Amino acid sequence: MERVTAISLLNVIGELLMDETSIAISNDKEFIYYQPSKRIDLKIKPGDPVKEGTITHKALMQQQKVSEFISRDVYGVPYRGMAVPYFNDGELKGCITSIFPTLTDAKSVVTLKINDGWIPIPFSNVMYVEAKDRKTYVHGEDIIGTHKFPLNDFEFLLPKDFFVRCHRSYIVNVHYIKEIYPDTHSTFVLLMRNNNRIPVSQSYSAHFRKLLGF
After folding, report:
1. Given 67, 101, 135, which residue is the final one in a domain?
2. Mean pLDDT of all residues belonging to the chain
3. Which residues constitute the domain of residue 139?
4. Is the pTM of this model over 0.70?
5. Fewest CB atoms less than 10 Å from the CB: which of 34, 56, 115, 183?
6. What's the domain count of the chain?
7. Own/partner pairs for 53-60, CB < 8 Å, 24+ apart?
């Protein structure tokens, strides 16, 4: 079998992830590879130094995986990322970083399409987001509207500390879960505060239980 170079392999991986995720690889001082995604580009170039304050720098300094939000102060673009350092014979050699899009610092609302207008509501007032009939519906405390973004985009847009994906068609705000009932095949049903029931599918049930600690 013909040998595959590391760069060609990385380019293929970048193609697989390019819709959402940018990939950056560094040694212990500078970046040596970068593949931007369609949704976020930090304009990193091979040879650029690893800046202090970046998620890559934090992972190198701590010599462990780091996953967190980084403000626009470093690259002019806010992002969420995960950085994992790599070693050779116990010696730190560099870091691989995945970079995801996120909301800007100034946004803390979701703007819903209602009839002929739009209404912004705070994240904290969103009960759940639903994909239905090729539309995205945002259910608030006392309002329901549509949004132009697909459900997958909301996984990046909504705060991860209280929004959880529980089904291919639902993301829920855990603060609005009234009760959780077991269902068949290791799945669950969520009774929300508005008394609507939302399924937790089998593919999400283990992750859902881990996040909520039961």
Report:
1. 101
2. 85
3. 109-212
4. no
5. 115
6. 2
7. 54/97, 55/81, 55/82, 55/83, 55/97, 55/99, 56/24, 56/26, 56/31, 56/83, 56/95, 56/97, 58/83, 59/83, 59/84, 59/85, 59/95, 59/97, 60/26, 60/28, 60/85, 60/92, 60/94, 60/95
